[in-house]
Specification:
single chain; 510 residues; alpha+beta; Beta Polymerase, domain 2; Hydrophobic Seed Protein; 4 domains; 6-stranded mixed sheet; disordered C terminus
């Protein structure tokens, strides 16, 4: 095996040579280990170089950083990071001490066989220069990881790796996804056995792994893998009751499957909306709705130009989580009436606190949590607005409640609609729903001043002029002024005062 051409450019080689000479000067053995070797053997680029040394890292790493003219970062009591910046790039060295007397002892304490690999640093340099045969000939491989790389198998080094660090349960899934590996059957059994330990890991570390799992396309497939391994409902036990829970007849899937499929539908919808116009016309979504889809595509691009959002954000992990959790209130609101009809009355609001506890459990930040809560609370509104003529007042109230997040809620509502039908044909209400979303986005992106006009008079002026105290009445009056303003009933400060005088006079007469 040879080294991937993107892994060792001249700058990287120079840094590694200087590092080797530094450790040689200090009579210190240095090995490239773990993910660095795994990626080299998989012919994948190496972004971080993991180096193990047979000496004190706190003693040597700061000096190495100075010699390389890099930045030194203390990771914990033993490991250190050195970042070397170039003109247009940077290289990261993670330096840690050897665990055990020999490098083989260190490797046998690692998580998976494909990471329990090492090559002396000087051999990496020699191989790249053509002075040594190949990677496999210099490989130190006590757990037979090279064989697993050849068969693309993910296997634990020992049966206790997950007990030593439960975060490795999610790392197993991430490695399987990112490196196209099959998890060997015995390792699957170990994951299922130890799944209950997962929440012992820090929420911040869980968050990092979950986002890495959700970032690539086919996120629903990745969520199903988590579920098959018993990890999904450890992280989100709120979904346990959703499995097998039926829905009204328009729904193809039960609540659990529908939630997962909404993530897939979001990815599919955004893929379609990024197609060239001629291909978008051929989309299965474009039957009778090609013009609306083209308009929606153009609107999202305009919103990006206005820096309201980025189109890429619609398939971000945070957005996928929001799509996944949009119906999390259904299991706690499930009811069947006397006619046998299924209802989930109040499930949007019931889902808001459940979203909060799930997102807290997986270490999500405030912004992602708020997004998911707003999607849960409001995801039905665009579809409901499509059932009646869409008024200026309804559009204003929608964006008054949601602001720019209303765009995300509207798009996820379309994914929700697609996931509702599953493989079944779309019905005419899809056309109405898509049209309503197009109108909503048009008004906000192109005509925002008309639905959310700047205030003609401020709260303090109303309080001073009319002797009103802060409270609900003041807020209602401000809202009524804005309502009348957006409908064109008032256009100036003087008209706003006349409007208030009439309102307050009517209230006084009563």
């Amino acid at each position: 095996m040879t080294i991937h051409e993107d892994s060792l450019d001249e700058q990287t080689l120079s840094v590694l040579e200087k590092t080797h000479n530094f450790f040689l000067k200090h009579s210190c053995e240095a090995f490239v280990v773990g993910g660095s070797i795994r990626n080299l053997l998989l012919q994948q680029p190496v972004t971080d170089w993991d180096i193990v040394i047979g000496d004190s890292v706190p003693r040597l790493a700061p000096r190495l950083a100075d010699m390389l003219e890099g930045y030194y970062v203390h990771l914990h009591e033993k490991a250190s990071r050195i970042i070397v910046k170039y003109a247009d790039d940077e290289l990261t060295l993670d330096v840690a001490p050897m665990h055990g007397m020999l490098i083989q002892d260190d490797l046998l304490q690692r998580d998976f066989t494909i990471n329990a690999l090492a090559i002396p640093l000087h051999e990496i340099i020699a191989i790249w220069k053509g002075e040594s045969a190949c990677l496999s000939s210099a490989l130190i491989d006590p757990a037979n990881g090279l064989a697993d790389i050849h068969t693309r198998t993910l296997r634990t080094v020992t049966d206790t790796v997950f007990q030593h660090d439960p975060l490795r349960l999610l790392r197993a899934v991430r490695f399987a996804i990112h490196h196209a590996l099959s998890i060997d059957p015995h390792t699957e059994k170990l994951i299922k056995r130890d799944a209950h330990l997962l929440l012992q890991a820090a929420a911040s570390r869980i968050h990092e792994e979950m986002y890495a799992i959700l970032t690539p396309t086919s996120a629903t497939t990745h969520l199903r893998l988590l579920d098959r391994l018993g990890l999904f409902t450890i992280l989100m036990p709120e979904f346990i009751a959703a499995r097998g829970m039926p829905q009204p007849e328009l729904h193809h899937w039960d609540v659990f499957e529908h939630s997962l499929e909404t993530v897939s539908a979001l990815e599919f919808l955004m893929t379609q909306l990024q197609l060239p116009a001629e291909q978008l016309h051929q989309s299965p979504l474009a039957i009778h709705t090609a013009d609306d889809l083209l308009s929606l595509q153009a609107l999202l691009r305009e919103a990006e130009e206005q820096q309201i959002l980025t189109v890429a954000s619609f398939t971000s992990p945070a957005m996928k989580l929001a799509a996944l959790l949009h119906d999390i209130g259904k299991p706690v609101t499930y009811a069947v009436d006397s006619n046998g009809d299924i209802h989930f009355y109040g499930h949007p609001q019931a889902g808001v606190p459940l979203v909060q506890q799930i997102m807290h459990r997986i270490g999500a930040n405030t912004h992602a949590t708020r997004l998911a809560q707003q999607v849960a609370a409001h995801h039905m509104r665009p579809g409901q607005l499509s059932n009646t003529p869409l008024t200026q007042r309804a559009i204003r109230r929608y964006f008054l409640d949601l602001g720019p997040t209303g765009i995300a809620v509207a798009v996820i509502s379309l994914a929700d609609h697609l996931a509702m039908r599953g493989p079944e044909p779309l019905l005419p209400n899809w056309e109405r729903h898509l049209s309503a979303v197009r109108i909503l986005l048009t008004r906000y992106i192109r005509e925002r001043q008309s639905i959310l006009p700047p205030r003609l008079i401020q709260a303090e002026e109303i309080m001073h002029h009319f002797g009103i105290q802060p409270g609900p009445q003041l807020g209602q009056l401000l809202d009524e002024i804005a309502e009348a303003q957006s409908e064109g009933a008032i256009r100036s400060r003087s008209e706003a005062f006349w409007f208030l005088e009439e309102k307050l006079g009517q209230h006084h007469d009563k």
